[in-house]
Specification:
The complex is a heterodimer. Chain A is mainly beta. In chain A, strand 1 and strand 2 form a beta hairpin. Chain B is an alpha+beta fold. Chain B is built from 25 helices and 10 strands. In chain B, the strands form 3 sheets. Chain B has a 4-stranded antiparallel β-sheet.
């Protein structure tokens, strides 16, 4: 779930990346490789607490976009007691989006406004709305030199949403040869590190030429001293996705 | 031997100096351990349970930071609290900060579920604050941070047991960086421990010089000669250095008990030197023809036996602490015994050796002491009265002992660390506020394992909560039940069945909690549920942390849950104190028996009669009964410090009886009848015994100034104990001797 937001984050950054300088060019090339909309993912997340205990969950995620409206539908597959929990986030270009939560155990569907704070509550983190609707000129991209990461030479970029300074800056390490994003470090507004996410096992998405996706990600939450390992078990382009694919079909367990 | 002491005096002085200097070099290695839990053996059940709870639920040590004002629901105070929460969250030693700003308000409005941070908007008008108070009062996630009268608001800081308590200093720095009009108070066991640690140092820094000063004053007052001050003072100082050096050498840490060690050495170890100096002055004044070297040989020859016997019995009595289950008490016994043993050796060898380097003092000043006749006149009168009323004395002793025995039945044991501090101290105040307004700072966890998120288990938890809260000692009871019921408000309408209720299925409970967890609220959940929801706990806070309250609540919990297959155990810091109390009582009984046995064996051997051993032990036994009786009558609890009294009393108090019997036997051998022998003994040895007792009382008196209530009581009680021993030795023993005429004294 948490990693979904990073996939989304890529998508959000793709839009405003028409290179006006080196940093924008680099960022554009990196984001351009990623499939960020109209896709289906099967994720396996291992949430590891600071004491070493862990939970394993599996999610099916649909991400769609049509006429400026974006949808994300997440359905919990595992563990059995949580199976069927569904969260649908709809984001409109000109109005506040909607979060719908379905809990199959009581058959209830609850709706919430997709305010940034509510988005945090459902752990979508950096929301779709924040980034897809962003004016490209509101992103500050700065080239910060080169840095080696796991033996690979990378471009180091500082990315700041100048309209949302509360979230602080992020530092991207993008591999020079392949323009793959290998690491994102997020900072809070005070400049201390919030999280580090690394990406690996890039695989081409079969039916879409030139598109690749990291199949393994590790996100370290530095504040809570826990980390998540996310494996993408399956990724498919879904150009057929429509609005009706993002409705909740209540099925009581 | 006395010739060898003078012959090898330089070697003796150098050897003693080298030993002291080597010990001094080890002292910087010393560390303080203020954690009372560490005083308890690792094998006790509650300690094992607490460790397991820590591993299941993560850091479970709570520090409460409180802002106190007439009314804390205002923008300034709440903004300051938020700023404190933000800054404190940057401290690496804290696992998490639980604040009112984490609280969520879950509701359904216009068909949309609203799950908003409780303090999303802080109002700016009085009417807004009044409305906010009403919202706070009705939200179980927010109201636990506020006192009912809104005079206090708190942050709960969670630390792991592995994080050192020094984190309190960092918290204080954060508070200093966020100033405000509200009073800030810190509470919780880590703060109490940190305060104990700081106060141990303060006590050592303050009490030790005071005890030293009183000792110098006593010595100068008694001898009016700087040699008489310097020699016993040096011996005490060297003994203290050796004991602390050995503490570092053995890798033992300074504990609450350790404060007693230097005080005990000061109080006890100067006695031997006092007797030798007094005798030196007597000889220097009376025998004009003796040189300093000859006087030094003579004082050793005359006093080595009684000093050795009193020293050995004192060491034996103090070694009674070895039988104590609490390691620091046993360590105190070993180190004090070694210190006193070293003082004994120094008094017998080093003092004459050192003294022989000095020149003889003027005769006039040596005789000056003789002018003091008030004590002498009092002793003569006392001797006459004692020999005239032996039966009255024994009857009075029996009466006092009976009262003491009755009082013993009222004696309570209390090892609650909260009672270490006076109500006026910072710790005392914050503890009182926490107990009164936040339901207490001591927690008992009732652990459930297995399939804990089933409606059946939840309903049982709810039943236990309702029953446990009825106990007057219980402040708050919280569990996953209140969390789940609060979460249900977000899914059910107010009028709908299921609102503020435990869900009907296990799946629904799981899903409500998981949804809450996804929202980043793991901290609220992890207090009650482990990561995989295999263990849950009910947290019970106690506003009365006394042992009796803990015992009562534990009994109630055990009765309620005895047939519950999911309940594993109840554990909490307060319950360690119950086990600690048992250890204190058992340790007290064991060390008492050990010390009495040691005294009995030594004196039976020295005076060649078991009756002598019994007679010598009688004054101490009566003193102990009277002491514990008075404690029972006046409601002074037996705690980890006062529990050490009896062993120390035996070690110190038996000296008076020995001095009395020793001199009485000598007088009988000179042909005096029993009554006359008693009178002479009281007139001669009685003087030394009284000065000896006074020096002990003066030595322990600084403890009354201690920062710790148990040590204050200890200081006061030791004065009562020694006085009782003194009265028994000077009244009861002579009365028994007159009436029973024991053969071993013939």
């Amino acid at each position: 779930m948490l990693k979904l937001k990073l996939v989304v984050l890529f998508a959000a950054f793709c839009m405003p990346l028409m290179g006006q300088n080196n940093a924008r060019d680099i960022f554009e090339k990196a984001a351009d490789q990623l499939l960020t909309a109209n896709l289906e993912l099967l994720l396996e997340i291992k949430e590891i607490a600071s004491n070493g205990k862990f939970k394993e969950k599996q999610y099916n995620v649909l991400i769609g976009k049509s006429e400026g409206v974006e949808w994300t539908k997440t359905v919990v597959q595992q563990p059995p007691k949580l199976k069927g929990i569904t969260i649908v986030i709809t984001d409109y270009p000109d109005e506040t989006g909607l979060i719908e939560i379905f809990t199959p155990a009581n058959g209830k569907i609850r709706k919430m406004k997709a305010t940034p704070k509510n988005m945090e509550l459902v752990n979508s983190g950096v929301s779709i709305a924040n980034y897809t609707s962003k004016d490209p000129s509101q992103l500050s991209l700065e080239f910060k030199g080169n840095e080696e990461f796991e033996g690979k030479l990378c471009y180091k970029l500082e990315v700041i949403d100048i309209r949302d300074l509360e979230n602080g800056k992020t530092i991207y390490l993008i591999e020079k040869n392949t323009y793959r994003i290998l690491k994102i470090t997020a900072f809070d507004k005070d400049g201390s590190q919030k999280s580090i996410t690394t990406y690996s096992d890039f695989q081409a998405i079969g039916e879409l030429k030139g598109k690749t996706h990291p199949m393994f990600m590790v996100n370290k939450d530095l504040k809570k001293a826990k980390h998540n390992e996310i494996k993408i078990l399956k990724i498919n382009a879904r150009p057929d996705l429509k609005e009706e694919n993002f409705t909740i079909e209540p099925v009581i367990n | 031997m006395q010739d060898k002491i003078i012959k090898y005096r330089s070697i003796i002085v150098i050897a003693a100096t080298v030993i002291t200097l080597l010990s001094l070099l080890l002292i910087p290695r010393l560390q303080i351990n203020a954690n009372v839990d560490d005083y308890v053996p690792d094998t006790i059940k509650n300690k094992i349970y607490l460790k397991e709870l820590d591993s299941i639920f993560g850091g479970s040590e709570m520090i409460l930071l409180m802002l106190n004002a007439e009314d804390v629901v205002n923008a300034t105070t709440l903004n300051r609290l938020e700023s404190l929460a933000t800054d404190l969250s940057t401290l690496e030693g804290l696992d998490r900060i639980i604040s009112p700003f984490n609280a969520q308000e879950i509701s359904i409005e216009d068909g949309l579920m609203s799950m908003t941070p409780f303090f999303e908007d802080i109002p700016d008008s009085q009417a807004g604050f009044e409305a906010l108070k009403k919202r706070i009062a009705s939200n179980s996630m927010a109201n636990r941070f506020f006192s009912d009268d809104f005079s206090l608001v708190s942050l709960v800081l969670i630390k792991n047991t592995g994080t050192p308590d020094i984190i309190i200093d960092e918290i204080k720095e954060v508070i200093a960086a966020n100033p405000g009009k509200e009073e800030t108070l810190i509470g919780g066991l880590p703060f109490i421990r940190h305060s104990i640690s700081g106060n141990i140092l303060n006590d050592l820094i303050v009490l030790l010089p005071i005890a030293m000063f009183l000792m110098v004053f006593m010595l100068y007052f008694s001898f009016r000669e700087w040699k008489g001050v310097f020699m016993p003072f040096l011996i005490v100082l060297m003994s203290i250095i050796l004991s602390f050096g050995l503490m570092a050498f053995f890798g033992w840490k300074i504990s609450l008990f350790s404060i007693l060690m230097p005080i005990m050495i000061i109080a006890i170890a100067n006695d031997y030197g006092i007797h030798l100096i007094a005798h030196y002055q007597e000889l220097a004044g009376a025998e004009e023809s003796l040189s300093m070297k000859e006087i030094c040989k003579q004082i050793y020859k005359d006093l080595k036996k009684p000093i050795l016997i009193t020293g050995v019995t004192t060491i034996g009595g103090i070694l009674g602490l070895l039988s104590h289950t609490m390691m620091p008490a046993a360590e105190l016994g070993v180190l004090t015994a070694i210190g006193i043993g070293f003082a004994l050796l120094l008094s017998l060898w080093f003092l004459p050796a050192m003294l022989s380097f000095f020149k003889l003092k003027d005769k006039g000043s040596a005789k000056g002491k003789k002018k003091n006749s008030v004590l002498d006149r009092g002793l003569v009168r006392m001797g006459n009265w004692v020999t005239g009323h032996p039966k009255t004395i024994i009857a009075s002793a029996v009466f006092v002992t009976i009262i003491g025995v009755v009082g013993v039945f009222f004696l309570k044991v209390d090892t609650n660390v909260e009672s270490y501090f006076s109500a006026k101290s910072e710790v005392g105040r914050s503890t009182k506020l926490i107990n009164e307004k936040f339901g207490g700072s001591q927690f008992i966890s009732l652990l459930f394992s297995g399939d804990v998120l089933t409606p059946e288990v939840m309903k049982r938890m709810e039943f236990y909560e309702k029953e446990i809260i009825k106990d007057p000692a219980v402040g708050l009871v919280s569990s996953p039940v209140s969390l789940v019921k609060e979460l249900s408000k977000g899914f059910y309408e107010l009028t709908e069945e299921g609102y503020n209720e435990i869900p009907e299925t296990s799946e629904e409970i799981y899903q409500l909690i998981e949804m809450f967890s996804l929202g980043g609220n793991e901290d609220d959940i992890s207090q009650f549920l482990d990561y995989n929801y295999e263990n849950a706990r009910i947290l019970i806070s106690l506003k009365d942390g006394s042992n009796s309250a803990n015992k009562r609540v534990l009994k109630k919990i055990n009765t309620l849950t005895k047939d519950d297959p999911n309940v594993r155990y109840a554990a909490g810091a307060g319950l360690t104190e119950i086990e600690l109390a048992d250890i204190v009582v058992k340790g007290q009984i064991k060390s008492l028996i050990f010390a009495l046995a040691v005294v009995f064996i030594i004196l039976s051997f020295v005076l060649r009669s078991p009756k002598a051993g019994l007679l010598s032990g009688l004054p101490i036994t009566i003193a102990i009964v009277v002491l514990f009786g008075l404690m029972g009558i006046f409601g002074i609890a037996l705690d980890i410090a006062t529990a050490l009294l009896s062993s120390i009393m035996i070690g110190v108090g038996v000296d008076y009886t020995i001095h009395f019997l020793w001199r009485f036997k000598t007088e009988r051998s000179r042909g005096h009848d029993h009554r006359k022998a008693v009178r002479i003994t009281l007139n001669t040895s009685g003087r030394g015994i009284i000065i000896n007792a006074l020096s002990v009382i003066v030595g322990f008196m600084p403890l009354i100034l201690s920062n710790f209530t148990p040590l204050k009581y200890f200081g006061a009680l030791i004065v009562i104990s020694i006085t009782t021993c003194l009265i028994s030795s000077l009244f009861l023993v002579p009365a028994i001797v007159i009436l029973t005429r024991p053969e071993f004294l013939e």
